[in-house]
Write a structure and sequence with these properties.
Helix 1 packs antiparallel against helix 2 and helix 1 crosses helix 7. This protein is 42% helix and 28% strand. Among the domains are: 77 residues, no CATH class; 84 residues, Pdz3 Domain; 129 residues, no CATH class. The protein is of the alpha+beta class. The chain has 9 helices and 18 strands. A 5-stranded mixed beta barrel has the order 3-4-7-6-5. It is an enzyme of class 3 (hydrolase). This is Zinc metalloprotease.
Length: 419
């Protein structure tokens, strides 16, 4: 249950922040957002607030923000249609009823002659007295069909009606908010756990190692090696690894007292390379630093951004195969393992996943945010948008290929973890 809870919280946070970016920038641009969904597939829970339906759906494989105009949700009334209208105090239609299932008092019945529910917002038709009337439609009118209500979306409130910068930022904001979430997670770790100082302090001296034989002890602070000042653990590691078989003079501080040791690193194989080691372990000391926590959050965000890009490059160049990829099942199992090391390790895992989600969505692949951004770039270069049908076909093919990839990755995960 702890793993399930951790997975739900991490997955929910990653998807929520991603979709929140789309949602906020859509609202900022004046786009009507019809639905804000966490998860895919059948609806588990739905709450309507204002003009947006907020839902939680069954399958934990993503989420979406459904904006007016992105799907074929425009409502067209043809000549000869019989409809009902409810009017407000100004005489404007506040509800358009296409197939009446409810009984409304004071309803106006019309046989449509002409209508525009996108730009001019009017309905012209014949009433029950055969009089031709022209009814103005309110911008926030509701269209009811078979008992289902849909808020009218005037053209200027649709996604396609907005200028290129607004459309670009609405799509880009999703991945961008994943990077913001990662920054906040790493900053929170710095505030709660402390910011690593990376000082070259020996956490543990292993038995029968060159360091133990020389007299080094837990808690010793290395200040110099061969007369060169050492201020970080990385500098210590670099000096030792490059000096296998060579005696080194170490200067350390123990309880404020300076001590000197001569240690000869022994040869060891690590990650396929032969390096020098002296047999010490490291756990970075931490210090509480409010402002330093923000710097730490930024450093960790940039570090993982570069690291994930490096791994992505290895995948593209064939240095590891598709079998190394993980889907929801693999992420769940890894979350189970990571959770055993404590809340801060779990938070770091969530931050890394958030950056990974942001980067993956920025890849210029059809159906992903990056694919849509690619079409915006083409629009800017051409001076006009790409044909919607052609773009839609590209995204459709992309969705099919991504679903196929998801099936393959999930099957690999199931074989790896359960068989």
């Amino acid at each position: 249950m702890e793993t399930v809870l951790a997975f739900i919280i991490i997955f929910g946070a990653l998807v929520f922040f991603h979709e929140l970016g789309h949602f906020l920038f859509a609202k900022r641009a004046g786009i009507l957002v019809r639905e804000f969904a966490i998860g895919m597939g059948p609806k588990i829970l739905g709450i309507t607030r204002g003009e947006t339906l907020y839902t939680i759906r069954l399958l934990p494989i993503g989420g979406y923000v459904r904006m007016a105009g992105e799907e074929m949700d425009a409502i067209h009334l043809q000549a000869g249609h019989r409809i009902g209208l409810l009017l407000d105090e100004k005489g404007q239609a506040k509800k358009v009823i296409l197939n009446q299932k409810h009984v409304y008092p004071d309803i106006l019945f019309l046989e449509v002659e002409q209508a525009d529910l996108e730009k001019d917002l009017f309905i012209k038709g014949y009433d029950e007295d055969e009089q031709l009337v022209n009814i103005k439609v309110a911008r926030d009118a509701v269209v009811e069909e078979n008992g289902r209500e849909t808020i009218l979306a005037p053209y200027d409130r649709t996604f396609d009606a907005k200028n290129l910068p607004n459309r670009f930022m609405t799509i880009f904001a999703g991945p961008f908010f994943n990077f913001i979430l990662a920054f906040f997670i790493f900053t929170a770790i710095g505030m709660l756990q402390g910011v690593p100082t990376f000082e070259p302090v020996i956490s543990e001296v292993t038995e029968d190692s060159p360091a133990e034989e020389a007299g080094m002890q837990d808690g010793d602070l290395v200040t110099e090696i061969e007369g060169q000042s050492i201020s970080t653990w990385d500098e210590l590691v670099e000096s030792v690894q490059d000096s296998a078989g060579t005696a080194l003079d170490f200067q350390v501080e123990r309880d404020g007292e300076p001590l000197n040791f001569t240690i000869t690193p022994e040869l060891s194989e690590q990650a396929g390379e032969e390096v020098g080691v002296i047999g010490v372990l490291y756990q970075s000391p931490v210090e509480k630093d409010f402002f330093g926590s923000f710097a730490y959050g930024a450093e960790q965000t940039v570090f993982w951004f570069k690291e994930i890009f490096r791994l992505l490059g290895m995948l593209v160049t064939g240095q590891f195969t598709i079998d190394a990829l993980s889907g929801p099942v693999g992420i769940y199992k890894t979350t189970e393992e990571v959770a055993q090391y404590g809340i801060f390790t779990l938070m770091s895992w969530a931050g890394m996943l958030s950056i990974n989600l942001g980067i993956m969505n920025l890849l210029p692949l059809p159906a992903l945010d990056g694919g849509r951004l690619m079409f915006f770039v083409l629009e800017a270069l051409r001076g006009k948008p790409v044909d919607k049908q052609k773009e839609g076909m590209v995204h459709f093919v992309g969705i099919m290929l991504l679903m196929l990839l998801m099936i393959v990755v999930t099957w690999n995960d199931i074989q790896r973890f359960f068989f």
